[in-house]
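name: query_chain
kind: protein
chains: 1
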Amino acid sequence: MSDKTDFAKAYQTVGEYFCAFSELDRELGEAVKVVLGLTMHPAGDFVVAALMDPARKGNLVLAAVAVAKNADRSEPSPKWKKSAEKTVKKALNHNEQTRVPLAHSYLDPQADGLVRVTRLKLRDGQLTGEPKPRKLQDKIKEAREITKKLQKITTDLSELKTPELDWLR
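structure:
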């Protein structure tokens, strides 16, 4: 059996990934507060905490992007809407395709820094799941890039209106 220090790079990469994803999740929460008009309200953190799951937050932000209007109630540019929608969908996909499997699978660190991820699933009485080596450095970079784009969307949404949610304010 190898010394655990042989796997330090893999352990570090897993930790770094989850820290990068936590920034993405936090930004989704900040966007939720903007959308619901709770940025300066003490209840903002309570609402974000109650939503818990990044998918719930992301879907709320995605819905807000779809109905967002300029201050004069005109439509934002189609380019902005398409870009914002694409970014939020990337965040949702990243959560589903990377974070969830890492958080809910068996992680087998390798000495070369890779992590083998085994996600067991039981469907119709059949057990499936093969170990898949994951290089997390690309996923860390991706999470950080999505976070930067989400920060821009959060700022943009603070200047836009969401008429369907005006009843909350």
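note: Residues 4-100+137-168 form one domain.
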